[in-house]
Amino acid sequence: MSRVLRQDWILLRRDLILHRRALVAVALIHAAFQVYFVIRVNHPTLWLVFTCIYVSFLTVMPLNREDRFGTLAWSCTLPVSRADLVRGYYLTAWALLVGSFVVALGLAAFVPGSKLSALMFLSPDRLLLAAGITTFLIALLLPFTIRFGFMGVVLVLAVLQIVGALTLMVGVTTGRMGNVESAVGGAIRALAAGITALRHMLSTPVFRLALLAALVLVNWISYRFASAILRRRDL
């Protein structure tokens, strides 16, 4: 276990060293965006959702740079397995995400004129909401980015847009847009109702632990999928 932790730390440091200049630029852009955002937005949940989406897309930057400069093949010559590299990518992604989120919370708390405060987001339920949004996006983005590079991000965005456009087109052409909206809303309500029912069945600590375990499981499945992709990728 100590060897694995040391290896993960080395891989994390490697990514931070290789991409430190780009990370500084990204951090400045992120800070500027957050300064504007916390002054303009006074709805905590809205800020939380958009901030989670924004920082989740920042996590694929190291992988995109490796794809741009063609260094992934060289990384695979290091004395580590491809699964180790993928684990390092996930560790780097979560480190970037947590760091970006802490910066956002700090700006929300200390920027003059901010309509938000860090205490609004430190409740377990809001932290779990943030973890759920970021887990879903990272679990979706990283495997596609490992397989297709920057085009993986474009592919994810394109698929989401195509699904949305097709749904809108079907609703408009059939004249049943209300039915489409009802179906989407019904699916969301069903999911929310299922989570609410589970919460009522379990005590609050057990429910939170179960939800956290589910998020860990999603990350593990995504990691295994990404490892299988990189293992079969011809570099």
What characteristics describe this protein?
235 residues, mainly alpha, 10 helices, 85% helix, globular
Care to describe what's here?
The protein is mainly alpha-helical. It has one domain. The protein is globular. The protein is built from ten helices and no strands. The longest helix has 29 residues.
Average predicted local confidence, pLDDT: 78
Number of helices: 10
Shape: globular
> Which structural class matches the secondary elements?
mainly alpha
Low-confidence stretches: none
The helicity comes to over 70%
Q: Tell me what portion of residues adopts beta-strand conformation.
A: under 5%
Helix/strand order: HHHHHHHHHH
Distance from first to last alpha carbon: 30 Å
Supply Rg. 20 Å
Number of domains: 1
**Number of distinct beta strands:** 0
Could you give a short account of the major beta sheet? none
Note the topology.
Elements: H1 2-18, H2 20-40, H3 44-58, H4 61-69, H5 72-75, H6 82-110, H7 124-148, H8 150-174, H9 177-201, H10 204-232
Can you describe this structure in just a few lines?
This protein is mainly α and 235 residues long.
